[in-house]
């Protein structure tokens, strides 16, 4: 399985001949190296409805008829936009042809703002456990630190955890380091930082705080094999 990081919370997973994008915020993301015109995802997984996470989902999904998996209220809205969307909810899991998706809790908010300014309720924000090829990835989504991260770690043998460190909208580096201690992944990767002025962070400082797990600060576009 090959993982790559593309700025903000955008993660690409390539496994079993399939390409999966998580939270594909491309247009408007000054950090990303991806181009909507050239990306060909087989599936898109969404943690919540904020525009900087839904991003270019509709255009990408329509281009290759990619399946979109999202919290159910967000999936219902995306379905109304002509997308093949599957709605799931916290605690639920399903085995797709590209891997198994399970939604976990996250503590945040979740709404989508349309071009006309309408605000669409996006359901509960979530984290994602993705399993394929005997490996498990945890994308925490946008969240604060919460105690049940320990339960997520105990119930799952997590190979790589993507955790937000930006502060202001999510947990900051200190809380994120504590979260890694609860989750106990083999590898932790910081995400959701530096995109906007309020979330500027030094990921190397986060790395210094983490005990008991390897931290890989992934440069934009770099890959990690597991």
UniProtKB/TrEMBL annotation:
Sorted alphabetically, the keyword list is: Hydrolase
Q: Which residues form the Metallo-beta-lactamase domain?
A: 7-192
Origin species, per record, is Planococcus koreensis
Name of the protein in its database record: UPF0173 metal-dependent hydrolase HNQ44_002062
Q: Recorded GO terms, molecular function?
A: hydrolase activity
Q: Which SMART domains match?
A: Lactamase_B
Residue ranges the record marks as coiled coil: none
Family assignment from sequence similarity: Belongs to the UPF0173 family.
